[in-house]
Fold:
Amino acid sequence: MNASTFSARVTASTLTDPYAIVASAVGTLGGPLHGGANEEVVDMLAKIGSVQNVPAFVEERLARKAKFMGFGHRVYKVKDPRATILQKLVEDLVERYGSDPYYDIACELEKVLADKLGHRGIYPNVDFYSGLIYRRMGIPTDLFTPIFAIARVAGWLAHWKEQLEANRIYRPTQVYVGSHHQPFVDIEKRRG
Structure:
């Protein structure tokens, strides 16, 4: 289950109203590791700036062990099939309305990263091309996630209804792994 749907289910399990359920799911969706990833992809492509800059950008990020937004998926260890469909839509837009330097950068980045990270199962996910479609449609970057959220509301509410059928509050188990029996230290004497 994806993070925003899980958040909706947890919130629904408290028997709160559907507005709070959608609000909690939207809050989760907005993070750059979930629905906000396509915004991060567009920002990353802008920072790269040109196809020629891709190899140096990749090497620098790999050296820092930094994430490549829009790459990798918990389930898919191949190119996300949704990314393939969205890439075709971007190609259709380019064919119809002319070239897009961000698309050219994205294609080169995908190629370089396939060589560098493909053996680890890291390929484009659904977020890699979706932002390019929104951008090409003239949608401001800060509206990408709200549009994504609109498409998910019906699903979140379906999960809410399903949760109500045999509700049991979500209470995840936690295991404390910190130190035990630590002496109290006055706040003035604590470090950092």
